[in-house]
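Hi U.,

Before I forget, here's the chain from the pilot set. I'm dumping it here mostly so it's searchable later in email.
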Amino acid sequence: MNTLEIKHLSKSFPGFQLDNISLTLPSGCVMGLVGENGAGKSTTIKLILEMLRRDGGTVTILGKDSVQLVKEDIGVVMDEVGIPLCLNTRQVGKVMAGSYQNWDQARYEALLQKLSLPDKKPFKDFSRGMKMKLGIAIALSHNAKLLILDEATSGLDPVVRDEVVEMFREFTMDESHAILISSHIVSDLEKLCDYIAFLHQGKLLLCEEKDRLLEEYGLVLCTPEQLMELDADTVKGTKKSPYGIEALVLRENVPAGWKVSPVSIEDLFIFMVKEAK
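Structure:
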């Protein structure tokens, strides 16, 4: 079963268009949305959540065509966590218990302790990292089946980020669960995600299984003359380095004898964006 299906999703603003986006997130998997600022990541998430009205396309979540029909099953963390500034974490728990039928207070309290969140300090005095941690604790405390996370690891220090990534990984050990997550921290997505979707200027450059991408693409370091020996369909992007030209290539098309180095998801995205420009 697919937890999330997006088909031909479109939205126009003055100076920007999200153009015909189609994605499929299978149950039990994590999909990362990667893109520079203004690429359309947050717009896509807001359209999924019906925070914006779409111009075209369809969104199906857990088999339903409206987020309102499955809102109990969705845990959301946006870039700005919408908690009243005067509330502390204890008070937030009481509010959420009245908002979600499946609220798990014991789980919430355990997450507050695990994430080192105070129980008496008001939300207005939280750092950005603390606010994001509270949003994550809430999202994981009402037995959601789908997490939708917009920059949820932003503002967290590396140690806490690693803990949070592990929590998300544990969440998807249940094969009925899935996560859609956007982040500027591509290293987090590379550790966590099964699928990667690259957005650039409102267009979907690609959406593919992470492991397949890492198997399919590689990097070669060569001279301009050596680059000319490679078929045009093999080279997917280039950039100059102090040691020559670094080229993103399709591994299967590279002639025998060439040294092909592994590529990271971050490098792959940078090359593809430069090529798209």
